[in-house]
Amino acid sequence: MDNTQAIFEKLKIELLKHHSKKFKEDFLDLHNYDQGRFFGELTREERLLVYKYLDPDELADTFDELDDEPDLIAEYLDEMAPSYAAALLNGMYDDNEADILGAVRNDKLHKLLSYMQPVDAARVRQLLKYEEKTAGALMTTEFISVAVDTTVGSAMNQVKQEAQYAETISYIYVVNESNQLIGVISVKDLIVNPDDVFIKRIMNTNVVSVRDDEDQTEIAAQIRDYNFIAIPVVDERNKMLGIITVDDIIDVIDEESAQDYSRLAGVNSEDMSENPWKAVRSRIPWLVTMLFLGLISAMVISQFQNVLDKFGVLAVFITLITGTAGNAGTQSLAVAIRRLANDEEGDSVFKLILNEVITGILIGLLTGIAIFAVILFWQKNMVLGIIVGAAMSGAIFVANLVGTLIPIIMEKLGMDPVVASGPFISTLSDITSILIYFNIATICLANFY
Amino acid sequence: MDNTQAIFEKLKIELLKHHSKKFKEDFLDLHNYDQGRFFGELTREERLLVYKYLDPDELADTFDELDDEPDLIAEYLDEMAPSYAAALLNGMYDDNEADILGAVRNDKLHKLLSYMQPVDAARVRQLLKYEEKTAGALMTTEFISVAVDTTVGSAMNQVKQEAQYAETISYIYVVNESNQLIGVISVKDLIVNPDDVFIKRIMNTNVVSVRDDEDQTEIAAQIRDYNFIAIPVVDERNKMLGIITVDDIIDVIDEESAQDYSRLAGVNSEDMSENPWKAVRSRIPWLVTMLFLGLISAMVISQFQNVLDKFGVLAVFITLITGTAGNAGTQSLAVAIRRLANDEEGDSVFKLILNEVITGILIGLLTGIAIFAVILFWQKNMVLGIIVGAAMSGAIFVANLVGTLIPIIMEKLGMDPVVASGPFISTLSDITSILIYFNIATICLANFY
After folding, report:
1. Is A301 in Cβ contact with B316 (below 8 Å)?
2. What does the pLDDT look like over B154-167, one tens digit per residue?
3. Quick one: B96 and B171 in the same domain?
4. Which of A225, B78, B184, B191 could be cross-linked to B207 through a Cys-Cys bond (beta carbons 3.0 to 4.6 Å apart)?
């Protein structure tokens, strides 16, 4: 890491001293990802020097690594001569190119497209039409396909010629005369087989592909399950359109897991704007929904106002009981979601519920006894200890059950169990906890006082 | 999907009717992942037939896809003749082989190793020594390396011979006479360069590698950032030991994101045992910690017992205020964590805090006004409405601030902000919410009654 920073410093000095040749040499020696990091540290003036010293094709490889920041790149493009910008875009993989052009202002977009080869411009326009987060929006059209009636030798020659433009050569796709995907071979197959073997004989016809309108989450699951380096994208007629590579899918998986966490809190992760008004607009709906769900609990408590008036100390423990039960329910939820993610079904779901029931009883008892002891020691009140201890046990048992059942039901209804379960479980567990607490209190107080 | 099930049914029939040749042909036509799914559906008797009809090498490819269930495979091995089991393990990639042998009982392990070639057994024993979740435990030794003084042509010949044993041929690693890693070339480089070019001239010497004791999370970050298909693993002397491939890293990323979620709820994700006692032992510590933190809130409430006795309806809204403030704090937390994950620093952290302050004031005001209106309508009590509304505004403002500051502080202290922040924020926000609520109530009641 320190080493990289030292190289970056050296590069900056070369840049500012206008040692253009040395700079170019050392810069191109870096891995593309490090080139991207270096470029990100530069000032506007330093960047203008880079555009002077590097060919657009060379910088294109750097920019391919900045593919998660299309808005930033769109700003960089503004600093360049349009012809340089167009050439640079042209040198990038076209999935990244389309992402960036999607972030460029409309007037600028037309200008850039006018500087491109008509055929490239048309291809990019086509990619820009796909909806975000679909296979079409993720794919690149830079793949290698061969005709079904070629031999290994001539396929290899084709790979030699097209390799530098292809995003991966791990798979070579086999198409018929209508450009329909009918098979796949790996570069390994090409290397180990003799030149005169026909592709048809060695290709795998059981090829897994995705449709251009398929959602990225589904595609991520397939790449993960099948351990692919890339997956082909086809249209409704099975015509080969492009490929999605595993590096883009890793970004999708990362993004989705961050999104799940944000959505749990009702925050729209794509709208991480720095504008407080927008933040308010994005957060208020979930917050107010939860507020109104919380009002149900408040209404239930107000039904027990007469018990509270007689025995005011009960109020002290409401939050403790609802909070602890909520925590227990969240634990059950976490376990249930993981089990469901592992695709367990049938018997196993029943076993999961049974286990949670037993776990809930055990945890409820232990926690109830603990809080009983604490209250006996703190408040010196046996009846209060019994009420809170018993209520805690019951509330935890119910919360565990709710935390297990709700995600199972959500999944059966086809909803995402991670995101939808949280609010329901906290609200339901709050209400049942309060009901259990005040009913136990009413019974005990009637018997003891 | 339906199509696959139909094929599975057909395969089962072939199996039970002892059409061994047809079964073998159709089974091997499936993608390895689907072979694994099919195999997972079989009964013990059906599996015994599979061991009869398939060579161990053929089934090895299937078992390589079941790499996330080493315990299950260890059970399958028990069903096979030891010589078949040893041959099957030998046919698997050795990272998976080591995982499975790690799950096998000790007596069985020695028996299996005794059936292997001594050199293979020694290699697996070596892999078994690595600690879980390190590069050494994840890596496979089935990579291709070439000497630095070879030509493209002879390297290509070596690839042809070794390809079927290598887990990937995307990269060919270049080593010196002491087996130290000094460069890397891609299979693309081999294909496009003429046969007589020396590897030394075209290799990339700026090769990114990881040490065998490095943690899997770090490795995942590098593979993601550099968009690698595989990363080489070296020892402390830079000797080449193995490679880690991107498919294993996707599993790591998946696992880590599931873990984060579970750890948020204090559930140990690795101990997803079906034994309720173990579940209790794993969940109770966090739950009891949270219970005692919750007791602090209860003690704070009990300090205001006199206010509660005079104005019992206040008890109705404690949970609502702490709950809503907690939700608002969680939203800020989610935003802060995402921003921190994007590595923002300096100015930007200050801006994040400022934005959250403004957002907190706005959301607090809006929510306060909403709850004021609800209480006015429901309880017909202007003073209660003012108390709850004002307390809600203040509590949300503080919770937002806490939800932003705690993860920033956690990160500065080198702790994982996702996992450690949750409990602190809910406890802190509960206490401040209660203090704000009852202090406002005390002031208002002193003035109005």
Report:
1. yes
2. 999 999 999 888 88
3. no
4. B184
